Amino acid sequence: SANAAQVSILRSANKAQETILNARKRQLAGKRKVTQGHFMLTTSEIRDKVLEAEVESAAKK
After folding, report:
1. Looking at the predicted structure, is the pLDDT value of residue 39 above 80?
2. How far separated are the first and last CA of the chain, in Å rounded?
3. Domain range spanning residue 13?
């Protein structure tokens, strides 16, 4: 019973760590955010958003 409690605690801690690491892996800024889910980057609206993201990231530097 005590062992089951430890396993439960470790599983919840592991799940919390996984969510943090997955959030770090996922880049949600700039060009990556604009192009996420798009495989063909030929439309002008996507191009315009990518250019805006480049300007924003250049302004931050």
Report:
1. no
2. 55
3. 2-60
